Amino acid sequence: xxxxxxxxxxxxxxxxxxxxxxxxxxxxxxxxxxxxxxxxxxxxxxxxxxxxxxxxxxxxxxxxxxxxxxxxxxxxxxxxxxxxxxxxxxxxxxxxxxxxxxxxxxxxxxxxxxxxxxxxxxxxxxxxxxxxxxxxxxxxxxxxxxxxxxxxxxxxxxxxxxxxxxxxxxxxxxxxxx
Length: 178
Hints:
- Residues 2-28 have low confidence and may be disordered.
- Strands 1-2-3-4-5-6-7-8-9-10 form a 10-stranded antiparallel beta barrel.
- By secondary structure, it is mostly beta strands.
- The chain contains 1 helix and 10 strands; from the N terminus they run H-E-E-E-E-E-E-E-E-E-E.
- The protein folds into 2 domains: 1-30; 31-177, Lipocalin.
- Strand 7 (126-131) and strand 8 (139-148) form a beta hairpin.
- It is globular and about 50 Å long.
- The protein has one helix spanning 3-28; strands at 40-45, 54-62, 67-76, 85-95, 102-108, 113-120, 126-131, 139-148, 151-159, 168-177.
């Protein structure tokens, strides 16, 4: 190769390399790194006792990695004269701007709408969703605790209106990655 062609190739490659590095960094640094351990499809473990349900959920990035979407369902068997039923819900996690805290909007098949603030522990093993405190409305806390690379514990708690820190457990469950 003559010297002019080599210099042209060197300049071209030098100009392209930063673009490739920047693109890869943008793909992985979507701002959802603390939540990556939740990504994928999950199935509830255990259950089988009267009144206990089973179900599945998933966490997937959507809208070009602008939101993290959780879809979930639980099937509950008939118990104590109540017929079997299915519960479906959807939660969309988002940021109002690139530097703002993560928030979440929860909607379900029973008509509940819950607005959450989201906290991630320093070790990134615990992700906690705390509902907005509103007068005459219960406060909710949903916690995911990573117990291994493919297992986690889930706890859903509620506190009565006017006592936003007086949580009692409503549901506890374990899940494993599919």
